[in-house]
Write a structure and sequence with these properties.
single chain, DUF2959, coiled coil, disordered N terminus, DUF2959 family protein
C-alpha cells in the first residue's frame, strides 16, 4: 500500500514537473524566457507582500476598534475584525504561494544557465557568463531569504488573531474583550515588526528586478 502511495506521489511530481517544462517551453517559443518569467514572479511576490501589509494593518485596526468598543453593536464589531483576520490569512497564503513560484522558476533558470555555459566554447565568454550567473544567484539567495524571513513572521500573528477570534466567538461581551486587551500590545508590536521586514523584502525585490532588467537590456 505504501509503495503504491509513493508511486502515486512520484507520478504527480513528474506530471507537475512536465507541466512546468512544457509551460516554459511554450513561453520561450513566443519570446518570453525564464528570466522574464522570474522578473514577473518577483514582481508578483512583491505586490502580494504589499497587499499583506495592508491586510494585516486593517486587521489590527479592526481589532483595535473591537477592543475599544463602547456601546453599539458588539457583534458587528466582532464580525468586522473576523473578516479582516480571514483576509489577512488569505493574503499570507498568497505571499507563500508567490514565493514558491519564484523559487520554482529560479531553479529552472539556473539549471538552464549552467547547462548552456558548458556549451560556450570561448573561455572568456564562458568565464563572463559564469560570473554573471554567480552574481545573480547570490542576489537571488539574499532576496528569497528576505522574503522567507518576512513570511515566517505571519503564522504566529495569525495564530494569535485566530485565538482571540475563537475566544470572543463564545464569550462576546465586555468582560471577554477586557481579557484579551493585554495581548493587543504584543500583537501590535509583532505586526509592526512584520511590516518592517516586508519593507526590507520589497526594497530588495525592487533592486533585484532592476538588476535583472538592466542586465538583459
Amino acid at each position: 500500500m505504501k509503495k503504491w502511495i509513493s508511486l502515486t506521489v512520484l507520478s504527480g511530481v513528474l506530471v507537475l514537473s512536465g507541466c512546468q517544462s512544457a509551460y516554459y517551453g511554450a513561453m520561450e517559443k513566443v519570446g518570453y524566457h525564464k528570466r522574464d518569467i522570474m522578473v514577473d514572479r518577483v514582481q508578483d511576490a512583491k505586490e502580494s507582500q504589499e497587499e499583506a501589509q495592508q491586510q494585516f494593518s486593517s486587521a489590527l485596526a479592526e481589532m483595535q476598534a473591537l477592543l475599544a468598543f463602547d456601546g453599539g453593536d458588539l457583534e458587528t464589531a466582532y464580525n468586522n475584525a473576523k473578516d479582516e483576520y480571514e483576509s489577512a490569512q488569505a493574503a499570507a497564503d498568497d505571499v507563500s504561494n508567490r514565493i514558491d513560484k519564484v523559487e520554482s522558476v529560479a531553479e529552472a533558470l539556473f539549471d538552464e544557465w549552467e547547462t548552456e555555459i558548458q556549451q560556450i566554447s570561448k573561455a572568456s565568454l564562458r568565464r563572463n557568463s559564469t560570473e554573471k550567473l554567480t552574481q545573480t544567484q547570490r542576489s537571488y539567495r539574499s532576496l528569497v531569504k528576505s522574503m522567507r524571513r518576512a513570511e515566517s513572521k505571519m503564522p504566529p500573528i495569525l495564530t494569535a488573531m485566530k485565538d482571540n477570534m475563537l475566544y470572543l466567538k463564545h464569550n462576546l461581551n465586555a468582560q471577554a474583550i477586557g481579557a484579551i486587551k493585554g495581548e493587543f500590545a504584543i500583537l501590535k508590536t509583532d505586526i509592526s515588526s512584520l511590516i518592517t521586514e516586508m519593507n526590507k523584502s520589497i526594497t530588495e525585490s525592487n533592486q533585484f528586478i532592476e538588476a535583472m532588467e538592466s542586465s538583459s537590456s
